[in-house]
Amino acid sequence: MNRVILNTVLISCLAIAACKKKQPPSNPEVPVNLLKLKTQNVLYFDKYPSTTAALSQVSLLPQIQGAITHIFFTEGTHVKKGEKLYEIDQRIYLDNYNAAVANQKVAEGNLAQAQQDADRYEYLNKYNAVAKQQYDHAVITLQNAKNSVQSAVQAVKTAHTNLNYAIVTAPFDGTIGFSLVKLGDVVNTGSTVLNTISTDGSIAVDFIVNEKQLPHFERLQNSKPVTDSLFTLLLPDNTLYPYTGKISVIDRAVDSQTGAIRIRLVFPNPKNIMRVGMSCVVRVHNEETTPQMVLPSKAVVEQMGEYFVFVAKDSTINNPKAQTDTGRVKHKLLAVQKKVQVGQTIGPNVIIKTGVNPGDRIVTDGVQLLHDGSQITTANKIGPSAGGKGGRG
Q1: Which of 128, 182, 204, 260 is deepest in the core (most CB within 10 A)?
Q2: 125: number of CA atoms within 13 Å, CB side?
Q3: Domain span at residue 144?
C-alpha cells in the first residue's frame, strides 16, 4: 500500500515538473547583419522599352489600273529617289496620250479657221458689208475654238500624267521591302499596295515616359547634355548599339487616360543595322554627379506601395530583477523602421534618396523577422539568411 502511494506521488511530481517546462523568452533577440550606410559615386541608366520607327515611310499605291509588266528592284535593298521600281502595262495609256495629242492638233486647226473667219467678218463689219448676226456668230465660234484648244491641251497633260504613272518610282532614298505583287498581277488605282519603302540613313526610336518626367526631358532637349553618350540603345540581343542618339520630338500632348507621353530619339544608321519595328531598350545616362546612398535591395521592405528599412539603434532596458544598479541597465540594439524613398535599381543594389542618413546602421539580413522596435543582435551563431555564421556589417 505504501509503495503504491509512493509511486503515485512520484508520478505527480514528474507531471508537475513537465508542466513547468521553461517557456521561451517573450521577446528574443533576432540575429541580423548590419551595414553602415555610406555615400558613393554611382553610374546608372534609366531604361525605357522602345520601338524603332522610320523617319519617313510610305506605302506605294498605283495611280492607274493595269497589269504589272516589269519589276526593276531587288527586294530588301537600298533604292534611290526617282529609281524605277514597277512598270504597269502602258499600252492603253500610250494610245490615250497619242489620241489626246491628235485631238489637240484638230482643235488647233479649228481655232485657225475660226480666227480667219472672225478676222474677215470683223473687217466686213466695219463697212457694214455683212449681217450683224453673222459677225456675232463668227466671234462666238472663235471663242469656242479657243476653249476647245485649252481643253485639248489639258487632255494631253492628263494622258501624259497617266502614262508617266505607268512607271512607279521611289519617292525618296530608302530601303524597299518585299513586293506584294508579282509580274502579271492586275493592280487597281489607290487600293492595291505594291510595296513599302522607308528611310534608312537615320532611324527613330520611340519610347513612353510618365508626365512627371516631362520637364526633365524638356530640359535635356533644350540644353546641351553633360555627357556625350546621354542616350544609348540596347538592341534586342542585349548588345549595345555603337551610336548615340538625341531627342528629336516630344509629342504634342499627354495621354489623359494613362498620363504618358511619347518621346522620339534619332540615331544614325549608316550600316543599316537598325530595322523598323525592332524592340529595344533606351538607356538615359544619369547625369547626377553627387554621391548617392546605396543599399542592397534585400534590405528594403515594400508594404502597400511604400518602402521601409530597419535602422539599428542603441537602447537601454531597465531590469528590476537585477541585484545591482549596474546590472539593472542593459544595452540593447533595437530595429527602428524608417520610411525611405527609393531610386534607380543598380544590379543587386538600390539608390536611397531620402529617409535615412549616411552613417546609419541598416539591417541587411533578417528583415523578414523584424517589426518596429524588435530587439536584434549581431552576435548570432547562425546566419539570418544563409544558415552560416553571421557577422557585423
Answers
A1: 204
A2: 15
A3: 91-165
